[in-house]
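Q: Hi! First time asking for a complex rather than a single chain. Here are the components, and I think there are two in total. Is that enough to go on?
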Amino acid sequence: MTRTIFVLMLAAALSACAVGPLQSSSPTQTTTAGATSGPGGGGAVISTAPSPVSGATAALLLQSQQERDAGNLGGAAATIERALSISPDDALLWVALAEIQMAQGDGALAEEMARKALTLTGPNSATATRAHRLIRN
Amino acid sequence: MLKKTKRRIWRYLFPVVSVALFGAVLYGFYLSWRVTSEFSDRSWDRPAQVYAAPVELYSARQLSAANLAIELVRLGYRETNGPLASGRFRLGRDLIEIHTRSFEYAGQVTAEQIASIRFNGNSVSSIAAPDGTPIPILQLDPLLIGSIFPAHGEDRIVVAPDEVPDLLKAALIAVEDRRFEDHIGIDIRAIARAAIVNLTAGEIQQGASTLTQQLVRSFYLSNERTWRRKLNEAFMSVSLELRYDKDELLQTYINEIYLGQDGARAVHGFGLASRFYFGKSLGELAVHEIALLVAVVRGPSYYDPFRNRERARERRDLVLDLMAGQDVITAEERSSAKTRPLGIVDRQSRQSAYYAPFLDLVRRQLNRDYEAADLEASGLKIYTTLDPATQALAEWTLATEIERLEANRPPLDGAVIVTNPHNAEVRAIVGSRQTGFDGFNRALNADRPVGSLIKPAVYLAALESGRHSLASLIDDSEIEVAMPNGDVWSPTNFDDESHGTVTAIRALAESLNQATVRLGLDVGLDKVIDLLGRLGLEDLPAEFPSLLLGAFEMTPLEVTQIYNSLANGGFRMPLRTVRSVVGTNGETIRRYRIEIEQTLDPGNVYELNQALVQAMRLGTGRTASRRLPDSLVTAGKTGTSDGFRDSWFAGFSNDHLIVAWIGNDDNQSTGLTGGTGASQVFAGIMAGLETRAYEVPNPEGYRASWIDFQTGLETDADCPQAVRLSLEGGDRPPKATACGSDRASIGSRFRTWIRGALQ
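A: Yes, that's all I need. Here is the structure of the assembled complex.
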C-alpha cells in the first residue's frame, strides 16, 4: 500500500517535471519561432500544440526511469523509443534518450541525440540546458 | 535332371534377383531419405514471425471510435453486444469498452485487461480501468504480418501446435482419415475398399489417401494418379510414420496443405487460409468456419468458396454432418452451424493481408546482420515498425489515384513509402498498385530518374557555401553548358520561358531549371554530390552537369532516405524497419536502437525547408496542398523525368514523410508531372493520416522577415507576394520601398500558365 502511494507520488512528481519544461518551452516555440512560414503568407502562424500526449509521455518517462534505476539500460532506452514513436519531436525525450546512451558509454551517440533535442526546443529551456550539458561532456 | 535344371535356372536368376532386390532396397532408402529430409526441412524450420508496431492508445490521440473499431477488427477483435471476453469489444457512442488479449511484445508479457476508452469526436478523451483508475497508455497486441522463411523465400503464416484448435484436428481426422491414430501411414482397409471400386470401374475413381499420404503428395506438388506414384507415396508415408509421431505429422499437415489460390500465390496451411478466407487468426474461427476450411481441403479449386459458393456450402454442411456423426460436435452445434452463412471476407477488403513489400525490406535489413540459417533455425520473433493503418491507407490511395489518373493514359503503376522522419521508422511500403500480390517491388527495386527531386540538394549546397541564402537573386536566363566531350547542353525551363532574375526561394519552389543549373555550377558539382552523400545516398551519381536536374536514377527507397534527412532537420538516420529481434524464450537477441548523426547544419536545412513549404503554397506542389486543410503545413518537392516517364513527389509534415512514384515499368511516357501525378497520391495519404503541421522552432541566430517572393526585397506582411522567411542573422534582404513588386506581372503570368498546364 505504502509502496503504491510512493509510486503514485513519484509518478506525479516525475510527470510534473517531465511536462514542466515542455510547457515552458512551448511559448518560446510559438513566439520567437513563428518558425517556418505559416500556410497563408500573411496568416497567423499555427503553433505546435504543446505535446498532446504528455500523460502517456510522462508515464513512459517514469517507466524508463524505473528501468534505469533497476540497471536495465537497454529496457530504459527501448521505453523512451516507444515514447518517441508517439511523440517524435519531444525534445525532452531526446535528451532522456541521450542521457541513457551516455550512461551506456556511447558519448558520441549521446551528443548527436542532444543536438537533435536542441533543434526541437527553445534555446533557453531547461531541456536545452540538459542537452548542452551532454554536449559539453 | 529336374534338380539340375532348377539349379541352373537359379544360377542365372540369382544375380538378377539380387540386383533387383538390392536396387529395390536402394530405391526404398532413397525414397525414405527424400521424404524424411523434406519433412524435416518443413517441420523443423520454425519460421521467424514478424509483427507490426502495436497500436498505442492514450488520451488526446487523434483517433475516432469508428477508426479504432476498424483497427480492432484488423487485429481480430470482435464486436459484441453481450458480455466482454478477451478479444472482444463493445462499441458505443464515443465509447469503446474493450477486453484486451494478453500478449508478449518485445520480450515483455502484458496481461489481458478491461478498459473503457472515451472519445471526444475525433480524439481519445480518456482511458480508464473498470474501477475508474486512469490508464495513461494502453498497448494492444501487435498484428502478425508474416513469417520469414529465408530458405524457401516465402511468407507464410505458420501456426504453432498450441495455436491449432482441437476442433480442427478432430474435424480433419473425422472427415479425411478416420483411422489416422491407428494406421501406419496407409490405410489397408480403405485401400481394399477403393481397390474394389477402381478394379470394377477399370480406372482410378476412388482414393483412400490418409492424411500422411496427402502430406507426402503436397511435398511434391503433383496430383498425378498412377500406380507407380501411388506406390512411392505409400512407401514414403510409411517411412514418415516410422520416423515421426502422429502429432508431428498432423502439425506439419496443418501448416503445409494446399488450401486455395490467391492470384499467383498459393495458399498453404490453415493459418494463412484462415486469414485468406475469414480475415482472422485460426484460433478465432467458429465451428462453421472450421468446417468450411476442412471442406476446402478436398478440392480448393472445385470448392472455392469465392467462386463456387453453393458447392462450398453443400460440402461444408456435409463436413458438419460427418463431424456430428463422429461426435466431434453435438447435434445442436451442427444444426446451428448449418444456419450460418459461409462467413468469408469480401475479396476487396482482403487487400492488405500480406505486407510483402515491407517484409522484403525487413528481410533485406536482417540479412545484413544474420546468416540465413540463424533466422530459420530458432523461431525468432521480429518486431517491426509497420503501421497497418498507414499501410492500408497508402495502398488504397495509390490504387485509387492511379485508377483515376489512368483514365486516358497507358497503364500506370506506382510505389509509396511512408516514414516517421524523426526516428526514421518505416511505417508503410507499397510496391505496386496491386496489393496482396507478390510482384515486382517498385518501392525497393525500381531505379528511375529522379528529375527535380534532386534540386533541394543543389540549394542546400548553395546555402552551405555561405555565398547564398534563400533571398539571393539568381539569373534564370537561358543557359548553355559546354560539356567535356564538346557538346553543348542547354537545359530549358518546364514552361520554355525565362523568368529573369528570381529569388532562390522562388527558383526552388517553382522548380526553375535554368536558375538551378546556374546556381549548381556556381556552387560546384562536387559539392552537390558530397551533399547527397551526407543526406544518405550511397550510390552517388557521376559528375555531369545534368545531375543538377536529376538525370540519374534512384529507387523510391533511396529517395526516402535522403528526404528523411531533410524532414529530420539535417540528421541522417538509417531507415529502420526492425525494432528488435527476440528469441524463443523471450530473450532480446538484438535491439535496433536509433542511430543518428548530424551531417548537415540544422540551420541550413531549416532555411531550405522554408522553400519546400513555399513550393506547397505557391509553387509546383500547390495542387496537392489544395486537398489538405490550411492548417496542415507541409513541405514538398515534385520530380518529373524527361519525356514524362516518371512522376515523383516527396513531402513531409511534422510526423510523416511520404515518397510517391508513378510511372510504367516499360518506360513509356505517363503524360504526368510530379505535380499532376505523384503529388496527388501524397495529398491523399497525408489527408488521411493522424499528423501535425510541419513546424520547427527558429534556430538560434535566425531572424524572420517578410520578403517579396518575386524580388527578394523585404516587404510588409500584408503585401500580396509576401512570404515569411527566416534567415541567418547576417543575411538581410534589402528593404523595398513599397508593396508593389514590379515583377508581379511575370509572376502572375507564370501562375496563370501553370494553372493551365496542371489542369
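A: The two ends of chain A are 41 Å apart (CA to CA). Let me know if you'd like any chain examined more closely.
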